[in-house]
Amino acid sequence: MLYLFSKIIMTRKQTINSKRKTSRRKERVLTDRSILEEIIRVDHAGEFGATRIYDGQIAVFGEKSKIGKTIKHMADQEQEHIEAFEKLVLNHRVRPTALLPVWNVAGYFLGAATAMMGEKAAMACTVAVEKVIGEHYHKQISLLEEDHKKLKATLKKFAQDELEHHDIGIAHNAEKTPGYSILTKFIEMGCKTAIEVSKKI
Ligand SMILES: [Fe+2]
Ligand SMILES: [Fe+2]
Q1: What's the predicted TM-score (pTM) here?
Q2: Per-residue pLDDT tens for 17-67?
Q3: Which of the ligands is closest to the CA of residue 163?
Q4: Deepest of 61, 81, 100, 102, by most Cβ within 10 A of its Cβ?
């Protein structure tokens, strides 16, 4: 009788332990909901800002100019990116940042202002923005677990596009802009601040 009783207790313990292990395993592969929300919110904001920067630059250079066509190629890719995040915002029921009207104006202003400084300065703006965004995407990829493989793949693809934009900027003599290092540091700082703010608000 005692043997039977201890056998039942042992079996129960084993069942509980195996359930605990399974649930721990499940916990490990699930992305934290608040992290997922932050990723989608901030990327939606960032891609929106990017489209506005290129809108501002194209408004100054014109779509038909040589540099305008190069910028249009990048702007078209940004359009794909923002459309993807618009879908993600809806599908995952994520609240977009309340600061979209700010990024609307700030992005356009940054694009137009750097374009008015010349082609090299416009490209320096691209180099600075895309450097921050590319790094930012790579950090996010490492935060997502296996339950969001598709989103991870999307971020990897977009990070490649941003790297291409960065390299286009370098190939167009961005680094020869007078005051390149101050200008890019200033823009990088602005982008990093915008990222931190857009995650929460
Ligand atoms: Fe983008
Ligand atoms: Fe980009």
Answers
A1: 0.79
A2: 555 555 555 556 788 888 899 999 999 999 999 999 999 999 999 999 999
A3: 2
A4: 81
